[in-house]
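Feature request, filed as a ticket because there's no other form

It would be nice if the structure record came with a short human-readable summary line next to the tokens. Right now we just get the raw output. Example of a typical job, pasted below so the devs can see what we mean:
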Amino acid sequence: MFMRPYRSDDYESCVEVIDSSVKTYCFADHGNDEKTIVAWCEAANKGLDTLEYGVVVWTILNGVVGVGALEGNKITLNYVADHFTGVGISTRMLDSLEHYIKLRHYDEVLLISTVAARHMYRKRGYTEVGAPMQGNGVSWNFPMAKKLV
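Raw output as currently delivered:
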């Protein structure tokens, strides 16, 4: 797996990764509510070309299998293609994003978790740092943080 900066010609591949991940793995969040899925995907996909610190992609054989993004010390995107989950890609993505945040001299990582991802983030040392917030449609978001050592 190779990590590189996002390029505008990655847009369609990244949209596919985000959309498939949301539809397949975030059922606990959206309950298959079509309005929620559409709003969620549109919000995430909009961020591809607008984030201040940019987006990185993870590729295998030139195909995009993961999409991540940072703004300061906040992870704003973290999606893995549905057919590549369970093989350590998300772990490697988080390792890379956390490392990059540390290189920028932050001592804490912030993110907003979904119901579906919260357990994974907890296993990686993240804790909830605020009250749940209404997400897109029927979904809920959970502010989380992790101290970097």
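Something like this underneath would help us a lot:
The beta strands are 2-5, 55-60, 63-71, 74-80, 108-113, 127-128, 133-134, 140-147.
Residues 11-25 form the longest helix (15 residues).
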